[in-house]
């Protein structure tokens, strides 16, 4: 397993992974759940990047949010679906770093350092709200049904949220190959198709590794902000990928419209309206990237355990702004691509619509309106944002 011990080494590894992913990205998008992206995920898992945030005390390089955001952005600009697969993995590494006991950390971080990924099984359907869980851990046995289990299909471990016998929220870590674990490929959505975030069922699965998850959100925390930072980086990556492909198409394939020729434009890239759209779009993409860097720097300064609720709020809101804006910009950029490049760019062989489908699908991961709401409430009235994992 490659040893990554610096920001520059991590970015170099991310660039190598992105280069390996590029040739197959269109086919993976088209295949969706019909073909598990084994080779693409192997390139990620064997890169050393899964361990970049493991604490130094546990044998890792302890690289922070600035590195993680950039690594995610670089990979997402090529394949945001593969970039999303380890999003929960990095969250769970943070959870273990802050709340795991010595035995749990030793067991799981040893595997992470060896390139083994942790998938998630956190979301459920059918309850009154997202945390109205039916999954139970009772007498050491785990039973329940989870949805949107990104990364679980090909993970070494799966982290499962459940209620224990006292009704308290816990996080159980079970081997993917454990008896009673079934991961389906019933992932049928318009975008982020290669994540294969299908349904996972647990039937009386024995659990040895468990930690109190409710306690993580009973104190000021940055777990939610750090998790959302990865989502923000994915959106910035999607926007950058769409802009990159628009640039290439305008330079190499696009023809000017009849109106542009009448106006004196010799090429599509010389159309004054295309120039306006491109300039505006490129500026917004750069602004989204700048907000991402700013948010990552704030989290780096605060650290994984904020000093107080004020610090936690500052980190959460910095990420909320970056995530909300990047989500809007990614959708806009992926749509503007076609306005700039014209009808021929919609040909199925180019698969350029994947950028919009990925952006639109990923952008509704959690409500953007509430992010802006909490930003305004803080600025106008000093109202603390909620202490949960979706901001």
UniProtKB/TrEMBL annotation:
Q: Name one GO cellular component term.
A: cytoplasm
Q: Name one GO biological process term.
A: L-leucine catabolic process
Q: Pathway membership of this protein? A: Sulfur metabolism; dibenzothiophene degradation
Q: At the top level of its lineage, which domain of life is listed? A: Bacteria
Outline the extent of the Acyl-CoA dehydrogenase/oxidase N-terminal domain.
Answer: 13-115
GO molecular-function terms, A-Z: 3-methylbutanoyl-CoA dehydrogenase activity; flavin adenine dinucleotide binding; monooxygenase activity
Q: Which reaction does it catalyse?
A: dibenzothiophene + FMNH2 + O2 = dibenzothiophene 5-oxide + FMN + H2O + H(+); dibenzothiophene + 2 FMNH2 + 2 O2 = dibenzothiophene 5,5-dioxide + 2 FMN + 2 H2O + 2 H(+); dibenzothiophene 5-oxide + FMNH2 + O2 = dibenzothiophene 5,5-dioxide + FMN + H2O + H(+)
Specify the Acyl-CoA oxidase/dehydrogenase middle domain's residue ranges: 126-205
Name the major location.
cytoplasm
- Residue intervals of the Acyl-CoA dehydrogenase C-terminal domain: 229-366
| SUPFAM superfamilies, alphabetized | Acyl-CoA dehydrogenase C-terminal domain-like (SSF47203), Acyl-CoA dehydrogenase NM domain-like (SSF56645)
Where does this polypeptide localize? Answer: Cytoplasm
What Pfam families does the entry give? Acyl-CoA_dh_2, Acyl-CoA_dh_M, Acyl-CoA_dh_N
EC number, UniProt record = 1.14.14.21
Its keywords, alphabetically, are:
Flavoprotein, FMN, Monooxygenase, Nucleotide-binding, Oxidoreductase
Family recorded in the similarity comment: Belongs to the DszC flavin monooxygenase family.
Q: What is this protein called?
A: Dibenzothiophene monooxygenase
The scientific name of the source species is Actinoplanes auranticolor
